[in-house]
Amino acid sequence: xxxxxxxxDDSHRPMGYRTIAEVQAAAGDLSQAMLLLDKMDxxxxxxxxxxxxxxxxxxxxxxxxxxxxxxxxxxxxxxxxNDIKSRHYSMIALAQAHAGKFNDASQTMAxxxxxxxxxNDHDRALSARDFAQAQAAAFDDDGALxxxxxxxxxxxxxxxxxxxxxxFARIGDLTRAKKAASQxxxxxxxxxxxxxxxxxxxxxxxxxxxxxxxxxxxxxNDKAKxxxxxxKVQGMVGDVAGAxxxxxxxxxxxxxxxxSMARARVFSKVTEAQTRIGLLxxxxxxxxxxxxxxxxxxxxxxxxxxxxxxxx
Amino acid sequence: MIAQTVxxxxxxxxxxxxKTINMPWHLDVVLAITEAYSRAGNLxxxxxxxxxxxxxxxxxxx
Lengths: 312, 62
Fold this sequence. Notes:
Largest interface: A-B, 29 and 33 residues
Oligomer: heterodimer
Distance between the termini of chain A: 30 Å
Radius of gyration of chain B: 11 Å
Distance between the termini of chain B: 23 Å
Strand content of chain A: under 5%
Number of domains of chain B: 1
Strand content of chain B: under 5%
Number of strands of chain A: 0
Structural class of chain A: mainly alpha
Helix content of chain A: over 70%
Structural class of chain B: mainly alpha
Order of helices and strands of chain B: HHHH
């Protein structure tokens, strides 16, 4: 904490506080975590993440306390920031919907909807994009697609369809997810959406559909991520040969992945999945074979995650 | 047995993470280690790991 207070760059503080608060919440140390609230007051995304962490930790009352506080903070912000307020309400509604608090989400979305008309064209596109995502998370499928379709800026409309596709995938509406992904006009964002759809299809046990979706992805990083998810499911259902083939395919994509952290995340997913399906020695060999420090470190973290998942 | 395996794997990961100090993405690596210690139920180590110094010490020790 004292180190955080000394940080010269203020922008690093909310992330640090959020990490500490989430770690404390996950460990059940709520009194300390809640003390950090004052330090995160004006950071709506950080507070929404913190509330989501509390919901995940099985602390709905504390999560609601955080949400109430952030709603009050947004409500009291200046009216000339109405477009920002709308986006913040949508973020809050998204956290509520993800926690299954659909009535609360609906009320918050009404606040967001009333402010969608404010700002310039770009501001309104951003507000509508975030609102569409919250609608999809709250099971308002038609509303989400309608909101996305009305966004006049091509790039923001593409992101909106991607977010909507990801939310449909998350709630298991895979047909609509695939359809929304196909409406993403920007190819990079379409890859992102297709990656989420392939992962959800694999998770639902439909590996053939997941492989078909994978074939539509162009970007190496998204291809590798999708293959990791497919491999995990193949391993879990006993198709070890298929899993090994998919792992090999994921690793083969990494030289084309543009930065070391993205490569590291792929290796981490591979070693985690290998460990989870009982291929611990294979995972260790892979991690040890990597020369790039960041990638090697995350590959070892993947092993830890795999062991912890096995324990859970 | 599994707890011991997790602890060993975490120790290896921490030493490897320490080697990324002063490299791009080091903070992301630290956050990954913090989260791993947290999920393993070792909050004290999670908090200690959050600060870069603890990683550099473990690297020297390692």
